[in-house]
Amino acid sequence: MVVARRYLISGFVQGVGFRFFTEAAAAREGLGGFVRNLEDGCVEARAEGEQDGMDRFERALHNGPPGARVDRVMIEDQIPEGRPPVFRIDPT
Q: Quick check: is 37 catalytic?
């Protein structure tokens, strides 16, 4: 079953390779979507894919890369859009 979710990750998550970590985690799971830094210091991600891969992706987001400190991951269910399994880093 394909699911889609938006994630808002807070903590010490910018300047530590979090976007690259997220991109790699999504690629491992065959997910589509994007990740980007927000002006408030959080990281936002949107991902779409099979439920099992999304579960593993979420666990990775809760841990983050070495050097990061994840305080909170807010998760919002979204409507799947049929995105191809391409995950990108949004430069904004």
A: yes
